[in-house]
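Practice problem: predict the structure.
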Amino acid sequence: MRSRGFRIAATAVAIVAIVGVGSFAAIARPWEARPTCPPPADNPEWSVARRWNEALLDAIRRALPNPPVHARNLFYLSAAMWDAWATYDPTADGYFFTEKSTAASREAARNETISYAAYRVLSARFIKAVGGSDSLSEFADVMDSLCYPLDMTTTEGNSPAAIGNRIARTVLEAGLVDGSNETAGYTDPKYAPVNPPLVVDQSGTTMTDPNRWQPLQLVRMISQNGIPVTNGVQEAIGPYWGRVASFALPDAGPDGVPIDPGPPPRLGDPATDAALKEQVVEVIRDSSRLDPA
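Answer:
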């Protein structure tokens, strides 16, 4: 079993090789047959795709909560695995990757291609995430359980590993231009809250606009999954996300609203003031019923 530090270093090198530089040529010895891989001991009934979905869900649980980003990762993993599957089907259309290939054992080739594509995509997406070292180690464990060597980083040729690495490169390149601002940590440099933070342990409320979002500032803030947040001030998640390339919604257009339900009720608006107050009271009432345990 590889050490965690070795795996992270090897993964970083592989990501640069596949996404930034091109490819390394793995040493191939065709006269040496690959040893038979025993079925994974844990959940042997799971498909290869299920194993990678479960590994991604584990990584999401470790990372800071960020629903838009995690939904995006779930989509890109699904697209990468679909493209790997479709590569070996003469009529299926790939989403990002459209090459076609054949193999003596289509099922074995699909499983290997799916795994290399999934491993490279997830490793690139989580290498800087909270809990990233544990997540990358789990991704490597999945590859180990399937007997796929991590050092097969070549993107040249039609081996299942090479095709999987090309799929990963294609998928990762698409993610860099989808509007999510991945390279800057999924932040929106143009967004700033209209209202100053509300300091929770102080009395009184100061707001610029009561109809706009106000971040809370707490002395001690813990994320939804128990991770301490250092600055104690809430940050807006995905205020620009309506302009990110969609995979299940119609084009958002210039306003970034793919499905527009109309304007919300506003405080001080004679037509909607009562409705807003009614909704606020409903939220307070429902919140009082929450079980702190």
